[in-house]
Design brief:
This protein has eight helices and six strands, in the order H-E-H-H-E-E-H-H-E-H-E-E-H-H. It is rod-shaped. Helix 4 runs antiparallel to helix 6 and helix 7 packs antiparallel against helix 8. The relative contact order is 0.13. The protein has a four-stranded antiparallel sheet, with no helix packed on it.
Length: 418
């Protein structure tokens, strides 16, 4: 029995911990990023980069090649005279050879170095593109999180309105017993209570839907009883730190690596080689027997054909780089316009909130005066309900503006990545 009681306590504690779990915006953004399927591509990009660099490093390793051939020719070279006392055998028409060749690069004109820089630049570019794609998650998480916070505030104001209406219901019921009110007054209060319950049901349903979507994004089940902490909005900066700027920089570096590869392609290349073989004939063409042979030496190569297209290739790279710079300017221009609009919206909401506090104070005074007048019989129940609803509207607007201010500040933070 004690074990069962202990298990029930543990289960209750677990459910309580889940119910009263507290979620912050930063936590939800981090979990959504980690849960996003695209995140695995970071590891794939890094692995690909390492493999390709490792392959490039092998360019300076000795390169071994094997070849073998057999041939038959209709005619061979012969000496057109004879020497007294000497017999010179003619070459065989069937010939065979097997060759092993070892090549060692001494200088490749910087091609390997520029190739590795190009691999690194391409990997950085791919990561930057991924950063930009994943960054869009922040805005989606912000919308869901602030949507839940706003619904929480609206539910809170609805609860306050329910208490006000319940107090009015009891007050009117007492008046009815004393003959100061009738059934229609009670019915009017009851109608407002039912309207409030309907609004509460709708808000709660929307909140559940938002929590379900946020749960899918963060990859964990969030209880409808969980609390959502309001983000702190102490200040903000308009300095732009968006990942798109890193993407533009990565694109420029990639084009610079391409220009380096074009230059390396047109440089002189030097290497050494050694070749060993066995065949008939060997190096001595007059020896008709199978014999071993070898050749060793150095070689220099310079492909001048690349100079025909070098200038145009560099011009194309320069055009691409200037196009990237133009895209960066357009992005900064649009981002600056957007951040300016958001800054104006923030200041507007702040001014509205200053009036909200004053309106709530006045509406509370008017409602208390209306309750006193109803008690004295100088106003009707409908007039009191009207003042209660107007106070509720003022409170709801204040809560709405508070969340809108947070959303506007975080929209600006998202625009500038601050």
């Amino acid at each position: 029995m004690k074990k069962i009681h202990f298990c029930l306590i543990i289960i209750t504690m677990l459910f309580s911990a889940e119910s009263f779990a507290q979620y912050t915006l930063d936590y939800c953004q981090t979990k959504a990023r980690d849960n996003y399927p695209m995140i695995v591509q970071y590891g794939m990009i890094e692995s690909s980069r390492e493999f390709r660099i490792d392959n490039a490093n092998k360019n300076y390793l000795p390169q071994l090649s094997l070849s073998a051939k057999a041939s038959y020719q209709s005619e061979v070279t012969e000496i057109p005279f004879t020497l007294p006392g000497a017999t010179i055998k003619s070459m065989s028409k069937d010939q065979y050879s097997a060759v092993v060749q070892l090549d060692q690069t001494i200088w490749d004109g910087g091609a390997t170095k520029s190739q590795k820089e190009g691999i690194k630049a391409q990997a950085a570019l791919e990561k930057s593109k991924l950063d930009v794609d994943i960054y869009t998650l922040k805005e989606r998480v912000n919308q869901l999180f602030f949507g839940i916070v706003l619904l929480n505030e609206q539910l809170l104001q609805t609860e306050i309105l329910k208490r006000d209406l319940e107090r009015s219901y009891k007050q009117v019921s007492a008046y009815m017993q004393n003959g100061m009110a009738n059934q229609s007054d009670i019915d009017a209060v009851k109608v407002e209570q039912l309207n409030t319950l309907q609004r509460e049901t709708e808000l709660a349903s929307n909140r559940e839907a938002f929590i379900s979507m946020l749960s899918a994004m963060v990859g964990e089940q969030i209880s409808t009883q969980a609390t959502f902490e309001k983000p702190v909005t102490q200040g903000y900066s308009k300095e732009n730190k968006r990942p798109e700027l890193e993407l533009f920089q990565a694109q420029s570096l990639f084009y610079e690596s391409q220009a380096s590869m074009v230059a390396a392609k047109n440089r002189i290349k030097a290497g050494a080689y050694i070749q060993a073989g066995y065949g008939r004939p060997g190096l001595n063409m007059l020896n008709a027997e199978f014999s071993p042979f070898y050749i060793a030496g150095v070689k220099v190569a310079w492909n001048l054909g690349g100079f025909y297209t070098k200038k145009n290739e560099l011009r194309l790279i320069d055009i691409s780089k200037r196009a990237t710079d133009n895209q960066k300017e357009i992005f900064l221009y649009n981002a600056n316009l957007k951040s300016t609009q958001q800054d104006v919206a923030i200041n507007k909401i702040k001014r509205l909130m200053e009036r909200d506090d004053e309106l709530i104070t006045l509406r509370e005074n008017i409602k208390r005066a209306a309750e006193a007048k109803l008690e004295n019989g100088t106003i009707s129940v409908s007039e009191l309900l009207r003042e209660i609803n107007l106070l509720d509207i003022a409170r709801t607007n204040r809560a709405k503006h508070e969340i809108e201010l947070m959303m506007a500040i975080y929209d600006l933070k998202n625009t500038t990545n601050n």
